[in-house]
Design brief:
- There is one protein chain.
- This protein has 233 residues and is α+β, with helices and mostly antiparallel strands.
- It has a domain at 22-35 and 100-232.
- 42% of the residues lie in helices and 33% in strands.
- Strand 2 (40-48) and strand 3 (51-58) form a beta hairpin.
- Helix 1 crosses helix 6.
Length: 233
């Protein structure tokens, strides 16, 4: 019994050391397009070892997330379940279609409500910036951006062309911007990004846990200060 316990503890310790010391390769791809007809579509995918996550959204199509492991789909989740919905105004009984739509929306589970509440208390831009600046957690191997655009205001197209050329000059060597401006005097945008990264999962989990605890503590302090201010007035 003690032998198996020792073997298990040794394997767990080796796994923790590997998660902290050994990086994994993360690949990502994002494609987005919008044209003058009002149609638009966004698709993004992330690959980490045998795991692949894909998110797709388009005009007239509810966004959804799929998860594949070794090429086999394990889950397909509608993202509209987690979107914060506005309550429709009070309507008379003569509009039964609103009641039908409300009945079709599945209620969120307790776990989903907890996850949504957690992420609402976190600033996503601050979190991404914090991780981006820490090379010991996240390292960019290559990042290629492709932009195709045109606008009815030709002067705006020219300004964006100049701005992107200036931006490409200050980016690090592993980042590239390829742009194809159009001069058709119509609003049209297409964007693509392909990235290859290194990520240290153990360090990431530790830093994310530290960041979440810090954000939650700050949110509680702000709520307490706001409550005291309201009581004093």
């Amino acid at each position: 019994m003690l032998l198996w316990f020792g073997i298990g503890a040794t394997l767990l310790a080796l796994l923790l050391v590997a998660l902290v010391r050994v990086p994994l390769s993360l690949s990502s791809n994002v494609q987005a397009k919008a044209d003058p007809s009002g149609a638009w579509a966004v698709a993004c995918g992330f690959g980490l070892g045998p795991i692949a996550l894909t998110m797709i959204a388009a005009a007239g199509v509810k966004p959804f997330l799929t998860c594949h492991v070794f090429g086999k789909q394990l889950a397909r989740l509608p993202l509209s379940r987690w979107a914060r919905r506005r309550r429709p105004p009070a309507a008379p009984a003569a509009r039964p279609e609103l009641q039908t739509e409300a009945q079709e929306v599945a209620p969120l589970s307790r776990f989903e409500r907890g996850v949504a509440g957690l992420f609402r208390s976190i600033d996503p831009f601050e979190a991404l910036l914090s991780l981006w600046q820490k090379e010991r957690i996240f390292q960019v191997r290559s990042l290629v951006l492709e932009v195709e655009y045109s606008f009815r205001d030709v002067a705006l197209t020219g300004r964006i062309l100049a701005a992107l050329y200036m931006l490409s000059g200050v980016l690090p060597e592993q980042c590239e911007i390829h742009q194809r401006p159009g001069w058709e005097s119509e609003d049209r945008v297409a964007f693509g990004a392909d990235g290859r990264f290194k990520i240290w999962p153990g360090r990431l989990l530790l830093d994310v846990a530290r960041f979440v605890l810090k954000q939650r503590s700050q949110a509680r302090r702000n709520a307490a200060l706001a409550k005291r201010a309201a009581q004093s007035t």
